[in-house]
Amino acid sequence: MGEEELHELVRGCIKQDRKCQKLLYKAFYGFAMGICLRYTNDRDEASGVMNQGFFKVFTHIDSFDTTRPFKAWLGRIMMNASIDHYRSNLKMAYTDDLDKAEHLSDGELPDRNLNYNDLLAMVQLLPPAYRTVFNLFAIEGYSHEEISVMLNINTGTSKSNLHKARLKLKKMILEADLPNKNTNYNTRTDYIPIVALNAINIQGVFLNRGIRG
């Protein structure tokens, strides 16, 4: 979608034009769903969160700065909707602090090959508190200091949850019965090698670049 077409849809949405709202929803459905899936247990839950996010999009679209990337603005709303969802359901049970969390080492993984659906399924199996911090730090690119403010926790708790999320993901990856590099898995998509979760550019797997804008 070109910039002019997007801005035309935004102007229509500001006027509460239902056709423009429908077109904007369809155009960014996949992007928005991809974000919400990472914060939820399954597609049904993600769909509910995404629809709440789009409600906020259409309610506050007049505040969108057209000089900024629309995906960044939309992505932030979906991320916040996901966090609000867990807060409202009292699922944000955080772990105790680790005083020296910054010194913890997650180690390295032997070569494994995962596609988007493989890694997404594993992230969805993480406890909500671990999953949320992992998403914010490893995928969205927020610092522990920023996460502590966003989630009303301290930096030690954020570091602890990230460390434990990585350990759980590594365990799942090591236990996964994956085919070799030349074989596709379920979705007919190419594999990418994962060597170490503390070094991989996970954003490239989830294709949600530009959320921070």
How does this structure look, described?
The protein has 213 residues and is mainly alpha-helical. The chain has two domains: 3-88, Rna Polymerase Sigma Factor, Chain: A (Orthogonal Bundle); 101-206, Arc Repressor Mutant, subunit A, CATH 1.10.10.10. The protein is 59% helix and 3% strand. It contains nine helices and two strands, in the order ααααβααααβα. A two-stranded antiparallel ribbon has the order 1-2. The protein starts with a helix and ends in a 7-residue tail after the last helix.
Question: CATH homologous superfamily name of the largest domain?
Answer: Winged helix-like DNA-binding domain superfamily/Winged helix DNA-binding domain
Question: How many strand units?
Answer: 2
Structural class designation: mainly alpha
CATH architecture assignment of the largest domain: Orthogonal Bundle
Query: What strand line-up does the widest sheet have?
Result: 1-2
Please state roughly what percent of the residues sit in beta strands, choosing from under 5%, 5-15%, 15-25%, 25-35%, 35-45% or over 45%: under 5%
Uncertain stretches:
96-105, 107-111, 180-201, 207-213
Number of domains: 2
Please bin the fraction of helical residues: 55-70%
At CATH level 3, the topology of the largest domain is Arc Repressor Mutant, subunit A
Q: Give the class-level CATH name of the largest domain.
A: Mainly Alpha
Shape summary? elongated
Radius of gyration based on Cα positions: 18 Å
* Gap from first CA to last CA: 18 Å
**Overall pLDDT score:** 78
What profile does the largest beta sheet have?
Answer: 2 strands, antiparallel
N-to-C series of helices and strands: HHHHEHHHHEH
